[in-house]
Amino acid sequence: MGKDFGGRINVRLSTGATLSLRGTFNTNPSGQSNEAVVNQDGSVDRVGTVQARRAEISFADKGLDYDALMKSRRFNVTMIEEFSGVTHYYTDAFIVGDPQTNRMNGEVTGLTIAAEKYNRSDN
Questions:
Q1: What is the number of helices (H) and of strands (E) in the chain?
Q2: 98: Cβ–Cβ under 8 A, 6 or more apart, which residues?
Q3: Which of 28, 36, 33, 30 is nearest to 49 (CA)?
Q4: Regarding beta strands 86-102 and 18-28, do their DSSP bridges make them parallel or antiparallel, or are they unpaired?
Q5: What is the longest distance spanned by two Cα atoms in the chain?
Q6: Which SS3 state, helix, strand or coil, does residue 57 take?
Q7: Residue 117 near residue 40 (C-beta atoms within 8 A)
Q8: pLDDT mean over 37-45
Q9: How many degrees, rounded to 5, is the angle at CA 109 between CA 106 and CA 110?
Q10: Is 83 helix (H, G, I), strand (E, B) or coil?
Q11: CB atoms inside a 10 Å sphere around CB 78
């Protein structure tokens, strides 16, 4: 695995739509989160919670129909990091959140991709 990050990231939905990422691309690639629970005797247990694989994104507002995006059928998402050579695949995905557009700078925030499956390839 390389030490390169950033650069151009291309986002394509299997619906044909593309997104021009702006400032945020955070991934939650695990299907489980863990929480520590402390017992009355001071011992610590772990509770695992199943979760969707996710990607928090912000992107440029280029006239996308947000109602159609939020109501769309599930789709696949491919994100290619040109600089690092890493490709992210989200399968059976949909959008969660509440889209918010900043009319001062044209940035869309408040959305996360949630998916049944996640894979990553390092080219």
A1: 1, 8
A2: 110, 111
A3: 33
A4: unpaired
A5: 57
A6: strand
A7: no
A8: 98
A9: 155
A10: coil
A11: 14
